[in-house]
Amino acid sequence: MSEALRDQFGRSIEYLRISVTDRCNFRCQYCMPLEGLQWLPKRDILSYEEITAIVAQLAPLGLRKLRITGGEPTIRPDLPALIRQLKAVPGITDIALSTNGVRLPELSGALAEAGLDRVNMSADSLREDRIAAIARRNLAFDPVASLLAATAAGLEPLKLNVVVMRGINDDEVVDFARLTVEHPWHVRFIELMPVGDLRELTDAHVVPSPEVLARIAALGELTPAAGPRGNGPAAYYSLPGARGTVGVITPMTHTYCGSCNRVRLTADGRLRTCLYGDHEVDLRTPLRAGEPLEPLFRQALANKPKEHFLLERRVGGLRALSEVGG
Ligand code: SAM
Ligand code: SF4
After folding, report:
1. Taking the model in full, what pTM does it have?
2. 60 Cα to the center of ligand 1, angstroms
3. How far is CA 268 from CA 22, 36, 121, 303, 324, in A?
4. Which CATH number applies to 15-323?
5. pLDDT tens track for 209-265
6. What is the domain partition of the chain in residue ranges?
7. How far apart are CA 165 and CA 72, in angstroms?
8. Does any ligand 2 atom lie closer than 6 A to the CB of residue 322?
9. Least buried of 10, 130, 249, 303, by fewest C-beta within 10 Å?
10. Whose CA is closest to 264, among 195, 196, 324?
11. d(CA 86, CA 259)
């Protein structure tokens, strides 16, 4: 077996986030512009077989964990078929899904049956009218029904991501935190990041995580907690008697790059070694030409940057998370 993949700073890479589409049934204010989006042509998007072929070449090098994301991955037809193929790759031990949750009530059972292990859902409000305003699509979406469907299918631990925006949804922080008392859910509050085309949002909308935690403390003392399995860059706490946890993710005030163990595959087959930074390697062309990918992985990792550039505020040059598979 080949030597495990390590980048130039000794970080071993066992986690791949796979974007299966750049499209979405939402247009979240902080993620996608309402108009003018250029979708990838269908021929450029990796097929499920091509995605699986890439994973099968990375697994012998130490890849263990996958996350399926987008865009909104559940709008790609027959997502359970991809999960089934990936689950059959030797060495892959954990498959998670990032979703806005709209299709979870109908899909949770089939996804779990296909081998999906767990779900991260995003929801920025518990109120239907507000969700429609933030997502700029009115799909009559009830996040709690989706969370219950995923829980019933055993897609746990279940994490809920909330992007906190001042004056838009920050008054619901306590309502979200309260969910963790009754349900075994892990609600994570994310600081808004200045990426993509944020015309309607400014720095004034960013709510720093200490402020979020101070508001939640109104419900009771917050005790530092271990956090759920597969915990990424979040700090977790629990409320008295709670079944779940609350967490904060602070991309703007801290960096997690020293412990970063992940790389990303875009829907059109580019390997990105850092969420932000111009480090992309085309895997689709060599894959379709039948060439081996291992030398390209090694070269890409050798160039994985030490940390992201968010703090330098290179706003404007940064692609939206929907494009890079956030
Ligand atoms: N559509 C899926 C979803 O919404 O979960 C998966 C893709 S989405 C790009 C992944 C995550 O990125 C979501 O939790 C979303 O809230 C987050 N995100 C997107 N743009 C962001 C921004 N500007 N600041 C903070 N988080 C952002
Ligand atoms: Fe779609 Fe997710 Fe981006 Fe919202 S955050 S527009 S649901 S990809």
Report:
1. 0.91
2. 30
3. 9, 19, 23, 20, 10
4. 3.20.20.70
5. 999 999 999 999 999 998 776 656 688 999 999 999 999 988 765 555 555 667 889
6. 15-323
7. 21
8. yes
9. 10
10. 324
11. 25
